[in-house]
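User: Structure tokens for this complex, please. No commentary.
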Amino acid sequence: MMAAIPLRVLRGEVTDFDTDEGLVAGLRRGDSRAELAAWNRFSGRVDGTLRRLLGPGQDPQAREDLLQEVFIRFFARVGTLRVPAAVGGFLTGITVHVVHGELARRRRRSWLRLTPTGITPDVAGPPPCTEAREAVQRYYQKLEALSPKDRSIFVARTIEGLTLAEVASVHGLSVSTAQRRLLRATKKVSLLVRRDPVLAGFADKAAAAGRGP
Amino acid sequence: MSDDRPFDLPGGPESRAERSVRDGQADEALVNALGQAARAVAASEPAGPTPAAWHRLNRARVQPPHRARPLIWAALGATACASLVATIAVVRHLRPPALTYDVSGGAVPSSGQVEAGPLGSAVRFSDGTEISLAANARLAVGAAGPHGARLRLQAGAAHFRVMHLPRAAWAVEAGPYVVEVTGTEFDVRWSEREQTVEVKMVSGSVRVSGPLLTERVALGKGQHLLARPGMGDLRIDDGRPVRSPGNPSVPTPAPALAPTPAATGASTPPAPPPAASPAASETPRPAAVRPRLRRRLALVTPGGPGPEPRLDATPSATDVPAPDAASALSPPPLARASSPAAPKWRARNWPARMAAGEGSAVIADAEWVGVDATMHQADAGDLSALADAARYAGRSDLAERAFMATRHRFAGSSRAHAAAFLLGRMADDRGDAAAGLRWYRAYLAEAPTGPYAAEALGRQMLIVKRSLGREAALPIAQEYLGRFPNGTYLLEARALIDNR
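Assistant:
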């Protein structure tokens, strides 16, 4: 007769990173599996946000650097997140901040006549093949006329689609101030768009169709 | 504020913002279309980082952060410091010195303090500005800069002759009022015991701000302001004694600031039969109160202009016809509650609490006392403060009750006049143009030179333009331009006249 093997109940670890609460708890513990789960879950979304905030035609390597920066800050600051359910918005806020800093840095470098690497950049690639792509590229060029913060507010609201309250929170402003700056940026951008026949024509067509391209 | 749209436009009086709203909507449609295109283009690109990115991220996390080259920042810092030092040196060199002053005929007990003797004294500034202090007046000179100074008339009267120089900026404080000056001649009197401020203009113009004035009021040549903030009384008139040719002791009626039937197409409501007024035989009052007296005497002028609404301190029910569509020229009805002998009201100091920003506490206190009791018993100052607190808190029902109570219980006072304007503005802002128009006209009839006269006439012009068309608004625009050539509705008035 075989001797009975005593069974032990092992206390398992929390491995459910599918929920916001579980994921944030894991990140706060420094669990590397939670970090990988966060990357798998959010990296695509953050990359999309970066595309929209930066515009088309960006160097993929530069965008990946920003993606890394976003996650490094996220992992470092997740301990300050009070409401785990708000982890998505928390990450979006970090992304907006990183892009804002990057654009300000680029502006400073252009003022100093420096490139990010110190090397003369290659000539830009071939122009976009579709009307929409060209129009969007021109649109982002117009946005360069805004200050980095105004551009960040404008893009976060009109392209990224954040609510006004989220835009204000991310940029550390009151809602009324954010709205005022948004209106100012909108007026300026609209004026610049209307002065560009190609862009104005595309926008009118798109607005008349009631949809994008 | 809605989050349904990509962004929102601020609210505001439609009348003043029609064009900007239309432009804003066009801008909104434009950036919406382009934003949608940008999202579509971003979505069409290959999405998501490559798996190798995760491994590069982990490598980056263990590497020390990249530091900017310190040499560049050091050079930048040095350049910035040098620029700052140079700028400060240039500004100091170019900035003119602060004004100085001499005092004759008075004592200077401490720096910046001037006490006039029994024969008065004179203060002369280095830019040519002169101040003549009346006997025993006291003046404090503070914050003298290169282009002006901030003066405080602590007691008595003074005559100011401020040189009109480029960038001149002077301010005279008298009690709770501030007179802002760029170059002009005027008298100021402040009595702490009577809590009375008087400003009499000799030439030029000044701007006055203080209690009972929600915004700065411009006083022009010859105008006179008398304020007793403690009594809730503030009057502005032209300061000139006007005598009747027949009886020099009786002031002549003021020209009627009558509503213009042509402008509205509505008929003037019938006026009550003229009643003999004892005021007709009164000794003329001081200039400060003359406008109100003149209006009252206009009722008993034989052969005077026919129907004219009665505007004295005790209006009857016939003064305020029902607000039907045909009575657009008349003020809205006043609540004619019976007025039993009200118990004595213990002053609750609400004006001071409002000034301290405690509007919600004022409303809470009124509700604790009882809103009905407050409406029947509160003194003018408390009632007015409650109306303001309710207005700022968005409690328009409570604000309207308080304003109506003010008009009913303190009829004829400057607070009651102001209540008419504010009731009109509330009605106008909520889209009730007819009620707004009646209240504005009521205010203009009661206080034709009141602090809100320009605003009331301008708003009246816009309502008439909207509701009855340009032609109807034309006479009001002409009147506005004549009376307020630098008013805030100048452009609208000009546009009306030029585009007829």
